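Thread: Newbie trying to understand structure tokens

Hi all, I'm a second-year student working on a class project, and my supervisor (Dr. K.) asked me to get a predicted structure for one chain before our next meeting. I've only ever worked with sequences, so writing a 3D structure as a token string is new to me. If someone could post the tokens and maybe explain what I'm looking at, I'd be very grateful. Here's the chain:
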Amino acid sequence: MPSRHSPVAAALIGTCLFAPAASASTSADELVRQARAHEAAHEEDVALRRYTDALTIDATSGDAWLGLGALRMRLGETTEAERVFASAIDHVPALHRALEGRARARWALGRRAEAEADLDAYATADGDVAALRELAGWYGSEGRTPAQLATWRRILATAGRSDDAAAEREARRMVRALVILVGEADPAASPVAPDATRSALAAISRRGG
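---
Reply by user tm_fold:
Sure, no problem. This is what the structure looks like when written as tokens:
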């Protein structure tokens, strides 16, 4: 059955339906702006309220989630920050920077494997060389040199694709240095000779596996 609404009436109806969502987004943006101003003035309690109010109005406000999580981290409320970033990912799955924030919160909480997985996922999604560099640093701090080397190789490849000459030079230097440190533990740099492989398999066979 044809619509009884004139084109003008249909347009007015569409505007009315869209207006509440647009208004909510605008209000949330204004609250985020106020929150940042209060942060700059060292009025953290008020800033926390403004970020929370913004999310009450618009639960998909990426700026509000990121601002609230970062403020919680800065205040030393690491567990709460981790919860904020996790909620951000639930509400806005495409908000990759929430993965970065949650990674740092989890690292601070000692949840190292989860933190590394988050930062790796963020760096992969955004091609972020700085995040990969941070991840390599985490591996290095734990003495996981092969993982550190693999990450610097990823940095080298990423920098090459993005024509980042400075990052590419840095990555080449780090890869050369780490290859020396890793030595025979690096299959890419020091592949096992076929004869050595056969000897190892024979030894295993003699021992009965």
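A couple of things are worth pointing out once you decode it. The chain has two domains: 10-114, 127-209. DSSP finds ten helices and no strands in the chain. Feel free to ask follow-ups in this thread.
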